[in-house]
Design goal:
single chain; about 260 residues; mainly alpha; Helicase, Ruva Protein, domain 3; Cyclin A, domain 1; 2 domains; Rab_GAP_TBC_domain
Length: about 260
């Protein structure tokens, strides 16, 4: 912010032309979906909170045209705006997306988030193989619960106090906290989940993971007690980044073949 005084206001003023039509359309779709039960965001698209949310999201889409806008960012900014003014929320978003998370986390194909879900799955298979087998038999992949956790940085999952404690750790310690917290949730709930016999009951229980996580101290204690080296996380990311890249190239090649038929 100090290095770019006035940048946010300039981006807001030019966002009507600087923000792509696709990003603008998706932002408008997602505005009414952002915490509709919260008093700050009730009342339609022209309430002060909604106007601030729109400006921040459009300004960021104008600033970072590679990312533009991605679903999930509305919830992140929506939380930020409950505590800071919109310019501070804009710079917090910049810091999160450009300095803390991998740069491709919110690209149009979510490749960075997809990589982290595969890393997370590998960690779960290593630590909770029995539970993962049970989930697989019930048709519940890691993305069923992990995608919302990671793409919205737990803002749609935890009660507010717990989520803020987790965010403090992310801004202080970095993105490895995503895995620590995710593993902590599973660690806390594994016995309960394994005791469930019916697939539909397991579906409901997994869907509700974290919704009532009120003991942030215990969650973080469990997460930080797990052995996890940054180098190991980055090695796994590199492995799955190559896998995701190859899959993307194969999809593009198949699409080109169909187009040439």
């Amino acid at each position: 912010k100090a290095a770019n005084p006035g940048l946010y206001r300039r981006l807001v003023e030019t966002s009507a032309t600087g923000c792509s039509p696709d990003a603008m359309a998706q932002i408008e779709l997602d505005l009414p979906r952002t915490f509709p039960e919260h008093s700050q965001y009730r009342g339609g698209a022209d309430t002060p909170a909604m106007l601030s949310l729109r400006r921040v999201l459009m300004a960021y889409a104008s600033r970072n045209k590679v990312v533009g806008y991605c679903q999930g960012m509305n919830f992140i900014v929506g939380v930020m705006l409950l505590f800071v003014d919109e310019e501070r929320a804009f710079w917090l978003l910049c810091s999160l997306l450009e300095d803390i998370l991998p740069p491709d986390y919110y690209t149009h194909d979510l490749s960075g988030c997809n990589v982290d879900l595969r890393v997370f799955k590998q960690m779960l298979l290593k630590r909770h193989s029995k539970l993962m087998k049970r989930c697989e038999e019930a048709g519940l992949g890691v993305e069923f619960f992990g995608l919302e956790w990671f793409i919205a940085i737990f803002s749609k999952t935890f009660p507010m106090e717990t989520m803020l404690r987790v965010w403090d750790c992310i801004f202080l310690e970095g993105d490895k906290i995503l895995f620590r917290v995710g593993l902590g949730i599973i660690e806390d709930n594994e016995k309960k989940l394994l005791a469930i016999k019916e697939p539909h009951e397991l579906f409901q229980a997994v869907q509700g993971l974290g919704r009532t996580e009120l003991d942030a101290d215990n969650l973080l204690k469990v997460g930080f007690s797990l052995r996890m080296k940054r180098s190991q996380v980055e090695d796994l990311r590199q492995q799955y980044r190559e896998e995701v890249r190859r899959e993307r190239q194969e999809r593009l090649a198949k699409k080109a073949e169909v187009g040439n038929c």
